[in-house]
């Protein structure tokens, strides 16, 4: 079983119905270590060595966060700046993360249509997440397309239950050693292919 580290960052978690549902799924999954950065580091004083040890103990890393101004909340950015250090995560001797897998799990208030070239945000989510893609690449990690829950303010209870089920299925696939997760890499959103891969198509 592949071990999955969920690095969760949400400064207003108590106000997010969608993220409460998704984190409930993550906390209950046997392959997941759920790590709430704002709960762990309310003073932003990150324990770099402890975070690096967590990374070493897991094969898959999920950056789970709301999509704030086309990026992540500040504590997750600080985590990236400090924990993914030169000659540890990248650089001539920085090989500790090589071969691991990374991806974003994000929520957006805007709908999927808003994140298209002719939409109000002008770029796709995959394009806007390029800095994360490049960060993973620099560290020798495989970067997968994001899992996204979009139009969060318009979701019905049924919609939310469906997204929670999709997320649970994603965690099952990522943790299963028999799953060739590289096959996910060509999609815009990993959501689109969850059912296809589940059916073995």
Q: Kindly identify the CATH topology.
A: Rossmann fold
Query: Helical proportion?
Result: 25-40%
Architecture per CATH nomenclature, i.e. the level-2 architecture: 3-Layer(aba) Sandwich
| CATH-assigned homologous superfamily | Flavodoxin domain
How many structural domains? 1
Mean pLDDT: 92
N-end to C-end Cα span:
22 Å
How is the biggest beta sheet arranged? 6 strands, parallel
Radius of gyration: 16 Å
Question: How are helices and strands ordered from N to C?
Answer: EHEHHEHEHHEEHH
Shape, principal axes of CA atoms: globular
Q: Helical stretch count?
A: 8
Beta fraction: 15-25%
CATH class wording: Alpha Beta
Number of strands: 6
Would you identify the regions where 5 or more consecutive residues have pLDDT less than 50?
Answer: none
By secondary-structure content and strand pairing, the structural class works out as alpha/beta
Description:
With 201 residues, the chain is an alpha/beta fold. The chain has one domain (4-198): Flavodoxin domain (Rossmann fold, 3-Layer(aba) Sandwich), CATH 3.40.50. The protein contains eight helices and six strands. It has helices spanning 17-28, 37-40, 48-56, 74-83, 125-128, 130-138, 157-175, 194-198, and strands at 4-8, 32-36, 60-66, 101-108, 142-143, 147-150. Strands 1, 2, 3, 4, 5 and 6 form a six-stranded parallel beta sheet that branches. Helix 4 links the parallel strand 3 (60-66) and strand 4. The longest helix has 19 residues, at 157-175.
Structural key phrases:
201 residues, alpha/beta, Rossmann fold, six-stranded parallel sheet, 8 helices, 15% strand
């Amino acid at each position: 079983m592949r071990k999955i580290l969920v690095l969760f960052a949400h400064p207003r978690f108590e106000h997010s119905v969608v993220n409460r549902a998704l984190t409930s799924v993550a906390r209950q999954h046997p392959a997941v270590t759920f790590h709430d950065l704002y709960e762990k580091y309310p003073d932003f004083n990150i324990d770099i060595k402890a975070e690096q040890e967590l990374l070493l103990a897991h094969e898959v890393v999920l950056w789970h966060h709301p999509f704030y101004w086309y990026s992540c909340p500040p504590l997750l950015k600080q985590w990236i700046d400090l924990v993914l250090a030169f000659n540890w995560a990248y650089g001539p001797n920085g090989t500790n993360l090589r071969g691991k897998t990374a991806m974003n799990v994000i929520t957006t208030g805007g709908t999927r249509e808003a994140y298209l070239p002719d939409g109000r945000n002008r770029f796709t989510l995959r394009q806007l997440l390029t800095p994360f893609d490049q960060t993973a690449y620099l560290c020798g990690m495989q970067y997968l397309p994001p899992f996204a829950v979009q139009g969060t303010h318009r979701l019905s209870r049924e919609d939310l239950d469906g997204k929670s089920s999709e997320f649970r299925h994603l965690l099952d696939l990522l943790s299963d050693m028999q799953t060739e997760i590289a096959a996910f890499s060509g999609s815009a959103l990993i959501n689109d292919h969850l059912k296809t891969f589940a059916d073995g198509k």
